[in-house]
Design a protein that fits this description.
Elements lengths: L11 H33 L31 H8 L21 E7 L2 E7 L8 H19 L5 H21 L5 H20 L6
Antiparallel strand pairs: 1-2
Length: 204
Amino acid sequence: MAGDTGNQKPNPLEMRVIGLESSVNEILDLLRKAVTALVAPLVQGAPPLIPYVPPPTANTSIGMLSIPDFFPDVDAAIVVSIGKHEFKPQQLGKLIPSVTAKATTTMYALEDGTLRAMDMAPIKDLPDFSTFMCTLGVYFQILYCYAGTPGSIQAVTDVAISSQAYTNLLHEYSHYFSYPAILTYHITHHSCRIREMIRGDYSL
């Protein structure tokens, strides 16, 4: 009887299990290769670390720079108008070189209980939310500089906190409202807040 064991046929169930294990291993190998192929380009394409470069004013040989000097791509008169709070939100397109000034249209908004005519930049000036936020970021950078000119750390802190809170608010609105609605909201909000900013109130 012992000599007959070598002639027994393989168990079909065992053969299926072995075949299934082999297939699973092949699938796992394919998945590992696919994941490696996807991750490798991401690692290779990682952005390089940006080294710290001291600000131009750290070089005393070139003298002290004025605030417009820090923004060479923006017209100096526009930079100064931001410091004086004379800058209109319809001029945002002038803060980035790739956007050229275009004709504006007229809209009406309720301000202090009075219906006032306001010039509104067409959407084509700032074609998308990303471009709009980039220009708004430049505006806030210029505002930081002027807020710090009196030497008040508190003023810079107030502007930084309020501008960041406003930026976060716009990003939150972008999940619920269309970009044209957000741009219209900003133009109206900024126009209504100019008087408060002149008084030093940068709160929302």
